[in-house]
TrEMBL record:
Taxonomic path: Eukaryota, Fungi, Dikarya, Basidiomycota, Agaricomycotina
Organism encoding this protein: Meripilus lineatus
Domain of life: Eukaryota
Keyword vocabulary terms for this entry: NADP, Oxidoreductase
Protein name per the record: NAD(P)-binding protein
Family: Belongs to the short-chain dehydrogenases/reductases (SDR) family.
Length: 211
């Protein structure tokens, strides 16, 4: 979250976009076959993917020309760069499209139906830095001191993820945006835009195709 502006990934992405978006997408993409196989031994017969978003998702749209370094990226605040990465993490249509993509490759129709029953898109913080963790290390010391007065213990951050990943009732919350603590909320409207999800899917698949 809001690292120094000069930090980029080895592939040249804005560090927040590369870490929170490209990295998460590619990692999940690699894990899908194992996750689908895992449903066979799951107590409820399902596989669950919980993506950690943030209340920062409410604070920005996607700025398409800012993913790599350049004039457009430099014009945006570090907060905005963080927020757009968290909006991407709230887009349920991206993960639903990953499941559809596999239908033509390694999965049977039965596997697709069983797997796609649950996909939880999860927000674990009420505001940016709502938990007392090292996520705030790049904030000015005064800002950290003030925020520490109102932050929740880091252990609280696991409550909603554990609920989404383990409780029987969350089977019904496929594609939902969850908020602290263990509740269904709603992201900004762009988070449910299928056209935006389609565009981001095409972009992300292009970025990982040679990896």
């Amino acid at each position: 979250m809001i690292p120094p502006r000069n930090l980029l990934t080895e592939d040249g992405y804005d560090l927040q976009w590369g870490t929170n978006v490209i990295g998460h997408f590619f990692f999940t993409h690699l894990l899908l076959p194992a996750l689908i196989a895992g449903k066979e031994t799951s107590p409820d017969g399902h596989t669950r993917i919980v993506t950690t978003s943030s209340m920062a998702a409410y604070m920005s749209v996607i700025h398409w020309d800012s993913f790599r370094d350049g004039p457009a990226r430099k014009k945006l605040s570090l907060d905005t760069l963080y927020a757009q990465s968290k909006l991407r993490n709230s887009l349920s249509s991206i993960m639903n499209r990953q499941i559809s993509y596999l239908q033509d490759s390694l999965l049977s129709d039965t596997q697709i139906r069983a797997f796609s029953r649950l996909l939880a898109i999860l927000s674990t913080s009420g505001i940016t830095g709502n938990l007392k963790t090292e996520l705030n290390r790049h904030l000015p010391s005064i800002a950290r001191a003030i925020m520490n007065l109102v932050l929740y213990p880091a252990s609280n951050g696991a409550l909603t993820q554990l609920w989404a990943g383990t409780m029987p009732e969350t089977i019904e919350y496929n594609g939902q945006f969850l908020i602290p603590w263990a509740r269904v909320g709603r992201c900004r409207e762009e988070g449910y835009d299928p056209a935006l999800g389609e565009k981001l899917w095409d972009y992300l698949m292009e970025e990982i195709k040679d990896k």
